[in-house]
Amino acid sequence: MALVVQKYGGSSLESAERIRSVAERIVATKKQGHDVVVVCSAMGDTTDELLDLAAQVNPVPPAREMDMLLTAGERISNALVAMAIESFGAEAQSFTGSQAGVLTTERHGNARIVDVTPARVRDALDNGKICLVAGFQGVNKDTRDVTTLGRGGSDTTAVALAAALGADVCEIYSDVDGVYTADPRIVPNAQKLEKLSFEEMLELAAVGSKILVLRSVEYARAFNVPLRVRSSYSNDPGTLVAGSMEDIPVEEAVLAGVATDVSEAKVTVLGIPDLPGEAAKVFRVIADAEINIDMVLQNISSLEDGRTDITFTCPRADGPRAMELLKKLQDDGSCKNVLYDDQIGKVSLVGAGMKSHPGVTAVFCEALRDAGVNIELISTSEIRISVLIRENEVEKSVRALHDAFDLGGEEQATVYAGTGR
Amino acid sequence: MALVVQKYGGSSLESAERIRSVAERIVATKKQGHDVVVVCSAMGDTTDELLDLAAQVNPVPPAREMDMLLTAGERISNALVAMAIESFGAEAQSFTGSQAGVLTTERHGNARIVDVTPARVRDALDNGKICLVAGFQGVNKDTRDVTTLGRGGSDTTAVALAAALGADVCEIYSDVDGVYTADPRIVPNAQKLEKLSFEEMLELAAVGSKILVLRSVEYARAFNVPLRVRSSYSNDPGTLVAGSMEDIPVEEAVLAGVATDVSEAKVTVLGIPDLPGEAAKVFRVIADAEINIDMVLQNISSLEDGRTDITFTCPRADGPRAMELLKKLQDDGSCKNVLYDDQIGKVSLVGAGMKSHPGVTAVFCEALRDAGVNIELISTSEIRISVLIRENEVEKSVRALHDAFDLGGEEQATVYAGTGR
């Protein structure tokens, strides 16, 4: 008998019919003799509908009230799944984030979990009940105000609960049946991975894989909670994310896959005086605006004028704000010009095998060269290579890299009706 | 400076536009220098939509989960109104029933308020904030589970909060601008009443007036909270419900109005042995099924067979269940036959003036006789006369009584687009 935490995304709960289907799966898990805790996202488009209503009553809605509003979505799906479970003859009890003891920081809209004290959930499990916990939400440990955890917050709720309850596995259900070597919509023979280390999944999530949010993987790694990425539309065992890369025998280490990200923009700051502290000024104004920088490149300074250029990428959504701040630096004479380019894409290769296989970078660059793709920027980690290229060359690049590293399988990958999460 | 509690019904909050209009009214009240606490019902059809979803996943949904589900509706409207208020420059803070200290019994779906400890609301008021409290919901004082208060629960929340906070008035907003001498859709010259005593409002609510639920009036009377029934679509001061009938000078006591109820059915149990305890059997099975009985009539027993007949009315929704139980009594020989009639209606005249004006019953019966309406059953209280008649004669009877007692005004009553609550 194991303790299983299951998290279902909005696409798995988009209708009464889907909710009943999910409930059947939950009851089946319980009947296998396991204790089951379920974390639900809001149904289908509920969150978008609530956001739309909020925008109609107040274009700049206060964050505390926004959290009060949005958390209603998970309460609804949670209660409906509990009802559906009872209709299949099992006992269920739903809990809000607060009732489940999900304590967070006070930052509305993007709170962090600081502690999980699931005493009520534990009691209900001990009484043979299937427990449902509303995802994405918690309660400010000081003020007792309702908070939300930001994008992918339900994954984080599930992992944090699994850690607090000492669960054997945390299953993340969506409409995708696992982690693939590439997006099957781009690469038809992409293969589903059976197992990935936490580090590999972290790198994949960081470079654009949407299958799990970075924060939930970080949490799982920190508390060593095995994750299983599965589809609520099939019985495929999915992909297991567990264990450290260090524990993978060298000869078994492989390349995990190719990920893409077309949500970033490239900013180039030209003519920064090549003196200590000048580049720091650029990054300080961006940091103070809470804009995340991803890739960074600083050129060698020009011998003529003793000035240098810095290029970095940041989320496109933050691009206009970044430009506004940097234009002020330009006005102050801290740089000569600022350029903006949002027609870029990032392609990354990730895998523990990279450590032990020399020449990966060479093959990587040759594959893109053969596909006629120009590389604008490169950044690497121990188990990842990322390049910045033109946005309209992303798909061709993914296929070229997938082929060059022989990641494809014999069969076409299964793609389900719903796409994305 | 006063402390005002305002309650807005679902029809007043059915769209973003209506929510902004309500927020404007709330902010205007605050700007007049008053402290304001607002209780919101769920938006328009939200509750019905949630009930529909629940029915799709489980035809007999567990009551605890139903409460978890339905309370989401008030959280949504509450947060949206708070956002709208902030857009008009005032500070607002929303509270769930639990956060506002609305403690209830454990009966899910129809819990009773046992205490209100609004310390957080009081603090927020002291900090100059407009407070919003989700109506219809509370928290079980023992288990901390979320509960709901049953039909009209938001009115009860508002009155209970007004009592706990010592508010000067509790304003109940809907799409009707006051209590009328009759339904203006039936009687075009029905007049809006300026003031009513608690007892009169209680009688009106008990005999079918939908404007306030009985329980909220009982609560207001017990804690002496003045109620003002108003429309969120106009600036009319509405109707004040306050004070005891005993305090009305005899010469000022008048008739308040005519109310109707077509939600009941008539059950007749024939041939009950006229012995002690036999009639009690009938009422016991009905009471055990938690079916409320309204009017009752027992005929004189027949001399021939020493048996008697009992007629009573109960909600139509409970009719089939009542019949099933009584048919069993018939099978046991405790009666000879059971008849069911759901084509009936009840018309009532209410008013403190009845006490001091002899002959009201005579005028009442004559008015119906002149209208050609047959009375099937009569019941009275100190300040009320109710009769059971054919359902299709209800409107004609209301008009006849309204005329006979000279309740009409010179002008046509204003009827707003939305009808009912």
TrEMBL record, chains A, B:
Entries under InterPro entries matching the protein: AceGlu_kinase-like_sf, ACT-like_dom_sf, ACT_Aspartokinase, ACT_dom, AKii-LysC-BS, Asp/Glu/Uridylate_kinase, Asp_kin_monofn, Asp_kinase
Gene3D superfamilies assigned: 3.30.70.260, Acetylglutamate kinase-like (3.40.1160.10)
ACT domain mapped to chain residues: 267-343, 349-421
Catalytic activities: L-aspartate + ATP = 4-phospho-L-aspartate + ADP
Similarity-based family: Belongs to the aspartokinase family.
Pathway: Amino-acid biosynthesis; L-threonine biosynthesis; L-threonine from L-aspartate: step 1/5; Amino-acid biosynthesis; L-methionine biosynthesis via de novo pathway; L-homoserine from L-aspartate: step 1/3; Amino-acid biosynthesis; L-lysine biosynthesis via DAP pathway; (S)-tetrahydrodipicolinate from L-aspartate: step 1/4
Signal peptide residues on this chain, from the entry's feature table: none
Residues annotated to bind substrate: T47, E74
Primary enzyme class: transferase
GO CC, one annotated term: cytosol
Any single biological process term in GO: homoserine biosynthetic process
Pfam families attached to this UniProt entry: AA_kinase, ACT_9
Domain of life from the UniProt record: Bacteria
Positions that bind ATP: K7, Y8, G9, G10, Y180, R185
Name of the featured protein: Aspartokinase
Entry EC no(s): 2.7.2.4
PANTHER family noted in UniProt: ASPARTATE KINASE, ASPARTOKINASE
Keyword vocabulary terms for this entry: Amino-acid biosynthesis, ATP-binding, Diaminopimelate biosynthesis, Kinase, Lysine biosynthesis, Nucleotide-binding, Repeat, Transferase
Keyword ATP-binding: yes
GO molecular function ontology, one term from the record: ATP binding
Job of this protein: Catalyzes the phosphorylation of the beta-carboxyl group of aspartic acid with ATP to yield 4-phospho-L-aspartate, which is involved in the branched biosynthetic pathway leading to the biosynthesis of amino acids lysine, threonine, isoleucine and methionine.
